[in-house]
Specification:
oxidoreductase, Alpha-Beta Plaits, Rossmann fold, 4-stranded parallel beta sheet, two-stranded antiparallel ribbon, iron, Ferredoxin, 282 residues, binds iron/sulfur cluster, 39% helix
């Protein structure tokens, strides 16, 4: 037996309750065969699948991911969530490509509840393709540690990526489904990840009004009365809310792109110098 034939990929499918799961069920009842190592997870709608689910699966060693939903325009919800699913998957495929992972490891397909044979065919074809491709990372020539680091870096940026691409992620291109294949370009993704902003509170300007800390959605701002505020860069999801919220008379928050963020002010040195007092001393 060759080394390739011995490789059993870890494959995960997240499929919608109403159509694709019905197709998988019919596939089983009809005794159509597909590889037993494809693990299926049922969700109510393909739009429920988040970018984080996909990257978490790859970070945990999945060799391939499959998203299955109802045919476009057959979604059981008025939201037509499968349009959002296809946009999200196309974005993830570009991100995978950006970090050096073969984007063909992520696939989205539509299967109705009456298409048991179609479900089996897709699973068999996808499994054969992944088996031929080989294990995640190894096939791409990326070692395990490097692969994990790259996936973690993108995972950390998912909230920022979702915000930056929110318009495209919400698009419903109903008259031209093929347009999804070119919705995101490699250059666009390279630029997006090159220009990731960081936010920094200028200790000389911060007046500890606490507005930013109250508005931060992830509690990434270290805040105390009378103390210069500090952004915890590890927690920050780069949403820019604090930048918008800091009152113009203070303008204490800087948006930094392409250069390192200054180190935080040490804990014992955060007492605010009130602007009025500063003037008196001068
Ligand atoms: S950019 Fe967003 S997440 Fe980061 S500190 Fe500001 S409000 Fe919080
Ligand atoms: S909103 Fe501006 S001035 Fe107020 S605490 Fe935050 S950074 Fe400081």
């Amino acid at each position: 037996m060759s080394a390739e034939a011995k490789f059993t990929p870890k494959m995960i499918g997240i499929i919608c309750n109403w159509c694709c799961y019905g197709g998988a069920d019919l596939c089983g009842v009809s005794r159509f065969q597909y590889p037993p190592y494809i693990r299926l997870i049922r969700v109510m709608c393909s739009a429920r699948v988040d970018m984080k689910h996909i990257f978490r699966a790859f970070a945990n060693g999945a060799d391939a991911m499959f998203v299955g939903g109802c045919h476009l325009d057959d979604c059981h919800y008025i939201t037509h969530g499968n349009y959002e699913a296809i946009s999200m998957v196309q974005l993830c495929r570009k991100l995978l490509e950006h970090v050096g992972i073969n984007p063909k490891r992520l696939r989205i397909e539509w299967v109705s509840a009456g298409e048991g044979i179609r479900f089996a065919n897709i699973m068999n074809e996808f499994a054969a393709e992944i088996q031929k491709m080989g294990p995640l990372g190894k096939a791409e020539g990326i070692n395990e540690i490097e692969l994990k680091t790259r996936i973690e870096e993108v995972t950390k940026l998912i909230p920022y990526i979702k915000l930056a691409k929110q318009d495209k992620l919400a698009l419903h291109i109903r008259d031209n489904h093929d347009a999804y294949n070119e919705l995101y370009t490699s250059d666009e993704i390279d630029e997006l990840l090159r220009e990731v902003p960081s936010y920094y509170i200028d200790p000389e300007k911060c007046q500890a009004c606490m507005t930013c800390a109250r508005r931060c959605p992830v509690e990434a701002i270290i805040s105390a009365k009378g103390q210069v505020h500090v952004i915890d860069q590890e927690k920050c999801i780069k949403c820019g809310t604090c930048f918008e919220a800091c009152p113009p008379r203070f303008s204490s928050i800087r948006k930094i792109v392409g250069e390192p963020v200054p180190p935080p002010v040490p804990e014992g040195e955060r007492a605010v110098v009130r602007k009025s007092k500063e003037k008196e001393v001068g």
